[in-house]
Design brief:
Layout (H helix, E strand, L loop, with lengths): L2 H4 L14 H23 L15 H23 L5 H5 L6 H29 L15 H34 L2 H14 L6 H21 L3 H16 L4
Length: 241
């Protein structure tokens, strides 16, 4: 095997597992536990229309979420280490010029625009939403907005690494089918957002499928990272309510 083949991005190699099945099962169990806790919060939120009451500052929550996301990435890194796969291998081909950067930004904005235009139709298809709202968790002060942007960028990197990088790759390798990889990670991605209620879990699952399709199409996580971060930044700062 040539050096160039050995250095090929993980998204373009053959379907080889990048970690043990045990490691993947534990990661999925962690994500399902997070989902279960979110569903518990929804079912025990009381009569308030909001999932939680507004706190003096959301910054401690944002910082804890950032720490948790980096913790998941660290766990993924440990699992891949034994197989010789690095985080940079999951990213896909490196940017070699500003044109590569511009291309991925344009792809992200096109996908975001298409999703935004179709969001109303998706919401109508899913019916009414009885879940508790999460607007009390969104930023309001300049300091909260600044930390929210950092949180969104963290989510863009970490969640794409975990779901579209590790899980998609692993599910594809174990099943021998790229479609299983795309759909499998999307379902777990949606379920992990159980704190937002059933309708949003379904919508986020669809969104995760789009993210996965873009990753497979481009053989890179970078467009999805840009798309994910921008979606969270825009949604958090300009959310209604």
């Amino acid at each position: 095997m040539t050096e160039s083949m050995e250095r090929a991005p993980a998204l373009t190699r053959g379907r080889q597992p990048i970690a043990s099945v045990r490691h993947t099962v534990i990661l999925v169990a962690i994500l399902l536990a997070i989902a279960g806790y979110g569903a518990y919060l929804q079912s025990h939120a009381g009569s308030s229309p909001q999932l939680v009451e507004k706190h003096p500052s959301a910054i401690p929550l944002y910082l804890s979420l950032m720490a948790a996301q980096w913790g998941l990435v660290r766990y993924v890194t440990i699992g891949m280490k034994h197989g010789g796969t690095r985080l940079r291998d999951l990213l896909g081909q490196r940017w070699s010029s500003w044109k590569d950067v511009a291309r991925d930004v344009v792809i992200a904005l096109i996908v975001w625009g298409a999703w935004s235009l179709s969001a109303g139709a998706v919401e109508r298809a899913l019916g009414g939403d009885t879940a508790k709202g999460i607007t009390t968790l969104l930023p309001r002060s300049p300091a909260e907005i600044a930390v929210w942007i950092l949180l969104s960028m963290t989510a863009g990197f970490c969640e794409e690494m975990v779901f579209r990088g590790y899980l998609l790759r692993q599910f594809e390798a174990l099943s021998g089918n790229a479609l299983v990889g795309v759909l499998g990670q999307a379902v777990i991605f949606g379920v992990a957002h159980g704190y937002q209620g059933l309708r949003n879990v379904i919508a986020i699952t669809v969104y995760g499928t789009v993210f996965g399709a873009v990753a497979v199409w481009r053989k890179s996580l970078k467009p999805g990272m840009i798309l994910h971060a921008w979606t969270d930044i825009f949604g958090g700062i300009f959310a209604k309510g």
